[in-house]
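Researcher: We plan to redesign the surface later, but first we want a full-length starting point. Tokens attached.
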């Protein structure tokens, strides 16, 4: 029996920015066919999963069971990394009709026809990518997928494969579409963005230059002022052409780098199969600081990796202090089946849970202290912000509180890249006080 296509859909996304981008591809494909988004009692639920930790997989399976219990008639499609690593388990869950691998999710031709939609033959020629990022001021743009490395704790290369770069021309066209839709910050994301271009005889610096030259125009034909931001990138890959492009385009490329450190201890880094030691990481930070004006560094740290003793943890604290991060994301290690670190005994032994908790708290505390110091260092600084409601996000990835009175008509504009001057005053929420917009003192208006 052929079923009628669904009328409404709910999307749930777990995990990274690359996953959020992939969800957007599916969202565009379904909303274009007239489905409405609905959080309650949706006939179709699309769950984009993550498998980076065992916990992420457990949460996705739990969600499927709960949805099937609460809405027995709903049809569920599961995609994402868990769909690659555990397809059979997912297929056995109630109400799961589709398990879409990462390839199918990007070109959901079969999925759409199984849902009962007729496909325009020209559809097959539609350029990959999106035109808007629904519900977000900032748009994510996935520039590559996959990873060639083999970190001991990570299952991503197994489920996403080797690094594949999207062509620069396709990405430039997508940036133009996103600008035309009103987005003023484009976040370049992927799984290992520093490796963009390696498979097509190019490099990320070349792509940054090409994207920096993209000039969108608004409905009145005025040139759009916009910026891009690199999402997570390895410290060892911010050099040469990448760093030169950042230095050459300080307005177009946000002065912020999220560079996973994972550990500041050389023994732990080696067991993690990371390719740098703490000295090299810190040298990279120093070189970047020499080339950019007060850049913001943020990082991921993994605590409790097998064999991490007190001394190793002290080394991490010291390296983190020296790097001077503006924010830390601290994760406790948990063994992921299918990875080299799945058996902690082979890598120096598991760390007891109490120590992991204490170290996580100590590192988070240090991250808060460093964040405050960084924000104080930003006093009296010209910056650009993208507004998200009454909160702006500046290039250095700090939240800036923007009172409506800062604008001549007393109303917050909905979009735009605004010039402002930051004051080193911090609110209780860790936001920075905004003291002036260039609109009042210079051009009219500064939203371009
Ligand atoms: S660099 Fe390491 S942590 Fe990052 S995706 Fe590749 S294997 Fe995973």
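Model: Full-length starting sequence:
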């Amino acid at each position: 029996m052929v079923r009628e296509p669904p009328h409404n859909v709910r999307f749930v996304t777990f995990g990274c920015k690359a996953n959020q981008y992939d969800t957007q591809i599916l969202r565009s494909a379904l909303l274009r066919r007239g489905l409405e988004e609905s959080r309650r009692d949706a006939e179709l639920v699309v769950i984009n999963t993550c498998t980076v930790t065992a916990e992420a997989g457990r949460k996705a399976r739990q969600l499927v069971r709960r949805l099937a219990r609460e809405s027995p008639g709903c049809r569920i499609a599961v995609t994402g990394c868990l769909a690659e690593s555990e397809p059979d388990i997912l297929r056995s869950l109630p109400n799961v009709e589709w398990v879409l691998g990462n390839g199918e999710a990007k070109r959901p031709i079969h999925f759409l026809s199984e849902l009962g939609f007729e496909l325009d033959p020209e559809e097959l020629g539609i350029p990959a990518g999106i035109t808007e990022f629904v519900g977000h001021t900032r748009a994510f743009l996935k520039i590559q997928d996959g990873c060639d490395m083999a970190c001991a704790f990570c299952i991503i290369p197994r489920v996403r494969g080797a690094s594949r770069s999207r062509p620069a021309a396709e990405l430039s066209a997508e940036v133009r579409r996103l600008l035309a839709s009103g987005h003023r910050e484009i976040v370049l994301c992927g799984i290992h963005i520093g490796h963009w271009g390696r498979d097509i005889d190019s490099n990320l610096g070349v792509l940054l230059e090409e994207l920096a030259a993209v000039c969108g125009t608004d409905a009145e034909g005025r040139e759009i002022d916009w910026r891009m931001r690199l999402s997570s990138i390895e410290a060892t890959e911010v050099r040469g052409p990448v760093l030169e492009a950042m230095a050459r385009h300080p307005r177009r490329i946000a002065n912020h780098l999220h560079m996973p450190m994972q550990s500041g201890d050389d023994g732990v880094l080696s067991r993690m199969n990371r390719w740098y030691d703490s000295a090299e990481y810190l040298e990279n930070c120093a070189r970047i600081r020499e080339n950019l004006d007060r850049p913001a560094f943020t990082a991921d740290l993994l605590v409790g990796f097998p064999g991490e003793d007190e001394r190793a943890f002290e080394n991490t604290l010291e390296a983190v202090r020296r790097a001077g991060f503006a924010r830390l994301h601290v994760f406790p290690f948990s063994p992921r089946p299918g990875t080299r670190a799945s058996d902690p005994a082979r890598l120096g032994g598991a760390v007891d849970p109490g120590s992991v908790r204490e170290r996580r708290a100590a590192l988070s505390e240090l991250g808060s202290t460093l964040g405050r110091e960084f924000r104080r260092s930003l006093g009296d600084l010209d910056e650009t912000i993208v507004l998200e409601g009454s909160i702006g996000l500046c290039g250095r990835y700090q939240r800036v509180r923007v009172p409506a009175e800062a604008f001549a008509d007393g109303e917050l504009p909905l979009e735009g890249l605004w010039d402002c001057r930051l004051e080193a005053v911090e609110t209780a929420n860790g936001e920075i006080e905004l003291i002036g917009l260039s609109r009042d003192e210079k051009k009219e208006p500064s939203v371009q």
